[in-house]
């Protein structure tokens, strides 16, 4: 039951403007280490983003840039199972920040606690981080990078406990999800296989079988289509 939870905050709408990162390590089903960093995005701060997370330009003065932080961060992600709430956002921030450096993507698998909660706790009206944390009684200062990462870790632990799994990858698989991956050449998303349309399936079932054209010298009862099905 080992994994690492992360949460990014950004200075503006650009995914390359990471200004804070929280990271929580889980070992043997318990939080074993927590890290948080302010990051100088070397970009402007939007008032809307400041209003959400409270991080201002003066707070990141003298803090490391993302490429300066990466040698510390990379060993904490390499080879891990990584979880984030709305992982598509956090993974895109990581990719965009790395795209602006000379570094390669790390290799790891990742899960999305938002999508897993949405599938398992389908009765909840909302599956945003604060709503799911409240459902489980998890304390949260929303949009604080460390608090958000910790809440994502605790939510995954609760979902694993509910479903009797000690492996986060097995939990994801039991809900029909395939782990996302990041690797030096790119990434694959955390996703469920596409659902077959019930209408299309019914139409296909009721459609008449095509008629085989009789071959020369044979009758119309040829079984030429038997190998097709």
Can you put this structure into words, describing what you see?
The protein has 229 residues and is of the alpha/beta class. Helix content is 36%, strand content 19%. It contains 8 helices and 7 strands, in the order βββααβαβααααββα. It has helices at 47-53, 66-77, 87-99, 113-120, 129-136, 145-163, 168-174, 198-206; strands at residues 3-10, 18-27, 30-38, 81-84, 108-112, 180-183, 186-188. Strands 3-2-1-4-5-6-7 form a 7-stranded mixed β-sheet, sandwiched between helices. The relative contact order is 0.15.
In terms of topology, how is this protein built?
Elements (H helix, E strand, L loop, with lengths): L2 E8 L7 E10 L2 E9 L8 H7 L12 H12 L3 E4 L2 H13 L8 E5 H8 L8 H8 L8 H19 L4 H7 L5 E4 L2 E3 L9 H9 L23
Parallel strand pairs: 1-4, 4-5
Antiparallel strand pairs: 1-2, 2-3, 5-6, 6-7
Helix pairs in contact: 4-6, 5-6
Key attributes of the depicted protein:
about 230 residues, alpha/beta, seven-stranded mixed β-sheet, about 20% strand, disordered C terminus
